[in-house]
Structures are given as structure tokens and as C-alpha cells.
């Protein structure tokens, strides 16, 4: 049994030496699974023109503040400055944070902010859009609940980046060398 254990350790030692691989793959998986998702979501919130993020679409208010937007008769002019600030910040975050993660710039901070974003997105889906049925449950036989199951994987991936950083193939690495 001792020889099997030693053989196993020797065979797997290469994996431990490749600690750069985990954060690099985490960013690659993020890019492959979530980058286009968040960019497309951000595009649905833009108003017209180059500065469309400053005049969000009605869909932006409907997505982020569904009940408050319904209460004002779906009139975005009736929403207050707080609502506008949150919608603009959320829209900008949907573009900036995923791009920062993919290029590996300020990765830990961007990943931490994305975790907060995913939590707020999930709470909005559950309470704002009434999607409690999509919540799902852990430790059941179904692995496809859009909120608890899928977003747990998203957050885990982001936690890896918060703890391990971006890896060697990142702009963070360039800025570390210069400072």
C-alpha cells in the first residue's frame, strides 16, 4: 500500500507544480461561459447613441427594478436619481468587470465585485422577478437550477480568482513586474 501511495504522489506532483494553471483556466472558463452572457445583458440596457449607458433603455429599469418600474407605469422618467445611478452602475459593471477578468487586470478586485454582482442579480431574480421556483435546492438530485446550482459554480470560479489571482498570462503580472 505504501508503494502505491508513493507512486501516486510522484505521478501527481506535476499537477501541484502547475499552480499557474488553475487561475489561467478559471479566466478561460469565465470567458467561455460568462463573458458573452454579461456583454449581451449589458447591451440590452443601453440607450441610444455613444453615451447610451447614461440614458438606459426602459428594459434596463425593467430588469433591475421590475416592481418599482411597474409601480410607475413603466415610465423611466418617473424613476428617481437612485434608480438611475444603480442602473447606470449595473450596466457599466456588466461591461467592465467581465473584461477586466478576461484580460487579467485588477483581477481579484473585479472578481470580488462580480461575486457581489451575481448575488444582487440572483436576489433581483428571486424577489424582483418572482423566480423563486428557479431557486432550486442543493443536495437534491437535480443539478440544473438556474440560481443555486449554476450561480454557485459562477461564484466558485470567481472565488478562485479572488484567492489565486489572474495567473501568469495576465495584465496584472505586467503591472506587478513594473512596480
TrEMBL record:
<keyword id="KW-1133">Transmembrane helix</keyword>
<feature type="transmembrane region" description="Helical">
    <location>
        <begin position="20"/>
        <end position="39"/>
    </location>
</feature>
<feature type="transmembrane region" description="Helical">
    <location>
        <begin position="81"/>
        <end position="102"/>
    </location>
</feature>
<dbReference type="Pfam" id="PF07681">
    <property type="entry name" value="DoxX"/>
</dbReference>
<protein>
    <submittedName>
        <fullName>Putative oxidoreductase</fullName>
    </submittedName>
</protein>
<keyword id="KW-0812">Transmembrane</keyword>
<keyword id="KW-0472">Membrane</keyword>
<feature type="transmembrane region" description="Helical">
    <location>
        <begin position="152"/>
        <end position="171"/>
    </location>
</feature>
<feature type="transmembrane region" description="Helical">
    <location>
        <begin position="109"/>
        <end position="132"/>
    </location>
</feature>
<dbReference type="InterPro" id="IPR032808">
    <property type="entry name" value="DoxX"/>
</dbReference>
<dbReference type="GO" id="GO:0016020">
    <property type="term" value="C:membrane"/>
</dbReference>
Amino acid at each position: 500500500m505504501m508503494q502505491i501511495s508513493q507512486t501516486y504522489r510522484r505521478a501527481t506532483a506535476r499537477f501541484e507544480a502547475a499552480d499557474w494553471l488553475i487561475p489561467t483556466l478559471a479566466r478561460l472558463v469565465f470567458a467561455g461561459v460568462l463573458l458573452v452572457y454579461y456583454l449581451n445583458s449589458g447591451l440590452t440596457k443601453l440607450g441610444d447613441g455613444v453615451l447610451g449607458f447614461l440614458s438606459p433603455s426602459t428594459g434596463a429599469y425593467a430588469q433591475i427594478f421590475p416592481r418599482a418600474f411597474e409601480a410607475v407605469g413603466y415610465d423611466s422618467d418617473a424613476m428617481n436619481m437612485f434608480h438611475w445611478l444603480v442602473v447606470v452602475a449595473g450596466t457599466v459593471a456588466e461591461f467592465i468587470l467581465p473584461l477586466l477578468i478576461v484580460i487579467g487586470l485588477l483581477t481579484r478586485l473585479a472578481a470580488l465585485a462580480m461575486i457581489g454582482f451575481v448575488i444582487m442579480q440572483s436576489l433581483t431574480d428571486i424577489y424582483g422577478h418572482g423566480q423563486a421556483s428557479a431557486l432550486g435546492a442543493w443536495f437534491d438530485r437535480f443539478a440544473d437550477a438556474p440560481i443555486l446550482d449554476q450561480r454557485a459554480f459562477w461564484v466558485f470560479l470567481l472565488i478562485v480568482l479572488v484567492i489565486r489571482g489572474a495567473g501568469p498570462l495576465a495584465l496584472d503580472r505586467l503591472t506587478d513586474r513594473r512596480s
